[in-house]
Structure to design on (310 residues):
C-alpha cells in the first residue's frame, strides 16, 4: 500500500471529529441569537458569494432543495434573508442576506475568530495556512473519485 | 483581528467540503456491497479500537444512542456485527465486528487507499502528514471552546 494513500486517508480521518467540534463551537456562539448552525452557514455562503437561488445553495451544501427552501422561508420570516427578482430566471428568485443579518453575522464572526485565536495560541499560523491549502488540494482530488451520477446526491 | 484566528478559520472552512467529497467517494466504493457509509464508519471504529458498547459508539460519533442501536441491530442481522457479554456492565453488551466483516472491510479499505493514492499522485505525502497532525491539534483546541453541558449533544 502506498504511503501517499495512507497519508491522504489520515487526513480524511481527522475531518469528521474537527467538523463536529467546530459545529458545536459555532452552536455555542449562536446560543441566544435564535440563529441555527445551518442558517448561519447559508448566511455566510451568501455573504461571501453574493445572492443565489435555492437550488444553487442546495447544490453548494450537498443537501436537498426542499431542506434549503424550508430554511430560507423561515429566515425570510425572521428578517434574515430577502428575496429579489432573478434577471436570469423568472421562476427562481434570488436569496440574499438582509443588512441586519450581515451586521449580526459580522459581530458573531468576530467573536468566533477571537475564540479561535485564543485556543490556538500555541499553533503556528503558517502551519494552519499550509493545512488549509493542503485540504483544498485534497478536496479537489477526492472529488475526482466520485462517479458522475453521484455528484448531486445527499452525502 | 488576529492572523491566527483567521488562519484557523480558513482550515475549518475547508473541512465540510472535504468531508462531503470523502463521504461520496466512500459511498462509491461501498456500492453493491450492501454496506452503508454509517455502518462502514462504525465497523472501522470497532476494528481500530476493539469491542465497544452502543452508548460508547454513539458518544464517539456524536449521534443519538437510538440511531446506533438501529444500525447495530441491522448489522447483527446481516452478520457484520456480533454481540458478546460485557464483563463490566451486565446490561450493556459489547458490539464487535465479525471475522467476515473484518475481511470485507480490509478489502474495501485497500481499494479506498489505492483510489486515494491514484488521485493524489501530485501531492507530497509529507504535506499530507503535516496536515493531518495540524488537524488533530486544531480539533483538540476547538473542543476547548465547547461549554461543558454541550459535549454530548448532536452536532
Amino acid at each position: 500500500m502506498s504511503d501517499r494513500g495512507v497519508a491522504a486517508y489520515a487526513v480524511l480521518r481527522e475531518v469528521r471529529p474537527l467538523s463536529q467540534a467546530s459545529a458545536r463551537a459555532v452552536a455555542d456562539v449562536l446560543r441566544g441569537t435564535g440563529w441555527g448552525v445551518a442558517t448561519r452557514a447559508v448566511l455566510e455562503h451568501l455573504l461571501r458569494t453574493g445572492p443565489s437561488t435555492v437550488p444553487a445553495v442546495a447544490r453548494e451544501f450537498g443537501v436537498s432543495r426542499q431542506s434549503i427552501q424550508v430554511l430560507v422561508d423561515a429566515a425570510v420570516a425572521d428578517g434574515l434573508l430577502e428575496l429579489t427578482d432573478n434577471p436570469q430566471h423568472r421562476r427562481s428568485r434570488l436569496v440574499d442576506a438582509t443588512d441586519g443579518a450581515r451586521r449580526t453575522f459580522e459581530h458573531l464572526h468576530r467573536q468566533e475568530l477571537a475564540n479561535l485565536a485564543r485556543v490556538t495560541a500555541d499553533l503556528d499560523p503558517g502551519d494552519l495556512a499550509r493545512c488549509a491549502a493542503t485540504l483544498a488540494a485534497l478536496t479537489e482530488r477526492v472529488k475526482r473519485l466520485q462517479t458522475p451520477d453521484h455528484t448531486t446526491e445527499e452525502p
